[in-house]
Amino acid sequence: MKGFAMLKLNNVGWVEKEAPKAGPVDAIVRPLAISPCTSDIHTVWEGAIGERTDMILGHEAVGEVVEVGSLVKDFKPGDRVIVPAITPDWEAVESQMGFSQHSGGMLSGWKFSNYKDGTFAELFHVNQADGNLAILPDNIGIEEAVMLSDMVPTGLHGADNAEVAYGETVAVIGIGPVGLMAVAGANLRGAGRIFAVGSRQVCVDAAKFYGATDIVNYKDGSIAQQIKEATNGKGVDKVIIAGGDLETFEEAIDIIRPGGIISNINYLGSGDYFKVSRLGWGCGMGHIRIIGGLMPGGRKNMEYLSNLLKYKKLDVSPLLTHKFDGLDKIEPALMLMKDKPRDLIKPVVRI
Under CATH, which number does the domain 2-150+295-350 receive? Predict the structure, then answer.
């Protein structure tokens, strides 16, 4: 089979590989729709997880099952399935502790294009199919469904980890596709006022669609200063970081209220340390929590999140700004995520 791969750092291209085979509890899936992610950009062009050689990229897909192992109970060839970006090993101790994303070690639930070949191929392998696949409901299109692989669960995980409550004031820093889903998540959880930090008009319009009440353009000056002025110096109850860099944490600390939570879902692809303001953190005693979380994977999460689309509680269509047809269009779609044109939110490739 062929796949689009990271050949080495700063270099991508097509490779030919032997088709994967299913173990007793696994499945082989043919992609129906896939989407490149900024994480792929961090991996290839920032070396965020180190060198990889001829590793097929991609971790967002919906597909059709073509083969299942002898012990798989709930899926069969021909089933259309949602494939989460995170496919844990469910027997691992970390999974039993409630952190399946890290089954086997830090970030080890993230297997596609990290520890094994990803979804940008004619076929791909899914471990523990009964625990990691979900049937795609008939009334959800494949373009929308592929947002359930990563964008929706990551964004909503940011709101969940922030413990957003009714009426609270929330700031979402970074309103790419994940940040937009964080805005949607904060709104679904009942936030009252939502600051969305970004500059591209297409993202600003989408943020308002998802419930943002205030837009902060970081190009107009300090994020913290603008939000402090807008809140009469009080700041916000919760901050969700979905973009930016290591310095973004300093801004987040400066706007969080005592007892607040800073929830990071941004993939920090470069740098070594981030700073925490001593005074902003109340000299270490401000009851401010900082939590960073990788999205939860697995079947249950995909089934529950698909209900949001199935029953019209969430509309992801504003994310889908660029659509391509054909496996050969993976490269131009990936380059869009690298170059970030002003009219881009998220590209999708229909196979």
Answer: 3.90.180.10
**How far apart, in whole angstroms, are the C-alpha atoms of residue 146 and residue 11?**
26
Separation CA 81–CA 63 (nearest Å) = 5
Q: Is the pTM of this model over 0.90?
A: yes
Pinpoint the residues of the chain covered by CATH 3.90.180.10: 2-150+295-350
Per the CB < 8 A criterion, the answer to whether 259 and 288 are in contact is yes
Structure tokens at 350: 């229909």
- Taking the alpha carbons at both ends of the chain, their separation in whole angstroms is 15
Cα torsion angle, 178, 184, 188, 193, sign: positive
Which residues neighbour 220 within 8 Å (Cβ) at sequence distance 6 or greater? 226
DSSP 8-state class, residue 8: E
CB 260 within 8 A of CB 281: no
Any idea what DSSP says for residue 112?
B
Q: What is the pLDDT of residues 4-46, one digit of tens each?
A: 999 999 999 999 999 999 999 999 999 999 999 999 999 999 9
CATH number belonging to the domain at 156-292, selected among 2.70.40.10, 3.40.50.170, 3.40.50.720, 2.40.170.20: 3.40.50.720
